[in-house]
Amino acid sequence: MSPVTTRSSRSIDWPLLLLYLVLVGLGWVAVYAASYSPDAPPHPLTALSFSELMAFNWFKQLLWMGTAAVLIVILLVVDYKAYDTLAYVLYGGMIGLLLVTLVIARPIAGSRSWLEFGPVRLQPAEFAKFTTALAASRFMAGINLRNQNWRDQAVLAGLTLLPVALILASNETGQALVFAALLLAYFREGMSPIILLLLAAGGVILLLALLVPKVWLVSGFTVVLLGAFALNSRLWRHHLPLSLSAWVLVIGMVFGVDFFFNKVLQPHQRQRIEMLIDPGKDPLGKGWNVTQSKIALGSGGWFGKGFLNGTQTKFDFVPEQSTDFIFCTVGEEWGWAGCAVLIMLYLTLLWRILLVAERQKSVFGRTYGYCVASILFVHFTVNLGMTMGLMPVVGIPLPFFSYGGSSLWSFTILVFALVALDAHRKQDLLR
């Protein structure tokens, strides 16, 4: 082994690697439990052919884990400077792949987002998060967002929104929403907090427009605005045009939400929002997924029913129980205690990634680290939120736990590209 390779291996963040291995291992256990059937006749593995084994999700997940291990080796061996120098090339290639997918992919569950290679299906939208994070980090390494240069911010917005538009066009709303996570990384690098506040305020206004009578909402906003003018007369002289523009924009959003809800959103997207607003509206129809999910989580009690002893998941009451709703298996079999341990593992992983990001010697490395943490945080938060009925069901997998090769590969690439950059961070001082 060469001295360079030895130094690099010693510089690998082993706690981060260990957290990854623990989560992937526990994820496989959860996939096995979710796909286990107590009524299936026992078969010794040696008596099953490869094609018969491929009928089991847990076996296919093992294969994805093996290929993920190969990916890790490649990511750590490749020249770490390639992540920076090839960022735009990889981004451009992924944009082209998203376009190809949009054209040639056959519809699956109403979405044109999967490329099929024989028995293998890959979802380019999963990998677009990695290439977009690289391109955005490369761009921000050459600018200073704190200077509030609107041209730079427009370019950054374009880099982020282009893959979002293509993913939305393929009818993958959940995957597109994840890109909003990158705003957290941009904020760390100096993007004005006003942008985040405006986006948050817009989201709150749209949500209130669905929950509160529009006349009340408009009246309340008008009273607040007039009250601000009454308390501070300088607003009349210096901020009247801006305030009136904000008032008109809010009125437009409030009364435009019906058009967006009824004309822009797909029927299944409207159903998800309706179920979030009123979960008990149709518990045996549109609300079945979330209703059964919450029953499974609650039935686990403090310490769960035990491994392979869940009833809601074993008898297929919970749909998509090995993918989007894998957390139900954890709650039912491991109980509140198991869920708490899993949440702590994820929080520890996020904390470790942020620590690794902050110790980078380059802006590119630090920004990319925050992109990774932000993407994982949004996936983790939204998946648990939709499982517990706190957020709309948008089909976002739980990192390292949900069954699927595309998600496991994409999260592995995100994390271990950062590990590779971190292993060589001291060399950045010499560049």
TrEMBL record:
Source organism per UniProt: Hymenobacter ginsengisoli
Pfam families referenced in this protein's UniProt entry, alphabetically: FTSW_RODA_SPOVE (PF01098)
Record's bilayer topology term: Multi-pass membrane protein
InterPro entries with a match to the protein in the record: Cell_cycle_FtsW-rel_CS, FtsW/RodA, RodA/MrdB
PANTHER family: CELL CYCLE PROTEIN (PTHR30474), PEPTIDOGLYCAN GLYCOSYLTRANSFERASE MRDB (PTHR30474:SF1)
Taxonomy of the source species: Bacteria, Pseudomonadati, Bacteroidota, Cytophagia, Cytophagales
Swiss-Prot/TrEMBL keywords: Cell membrane, Cell shape, Cell wall biogenesis/degradation, Glycosyltransferase, Membrane, Peptidoglycan synthesis, Transferase, Transmembrane, Transmembrane helix
Major site of localization recorded for this protein: membrane
Protein name, per record: Cell wall polymerase
Transmembrane segments: 12-35, 55-78, 85-105, 154-187, 194-212, 218-235, 242-261, 334-355, 367-394, 400-421
Coiled-coil annotated spans: none
Subcellular location(s) of the protein: Membrane
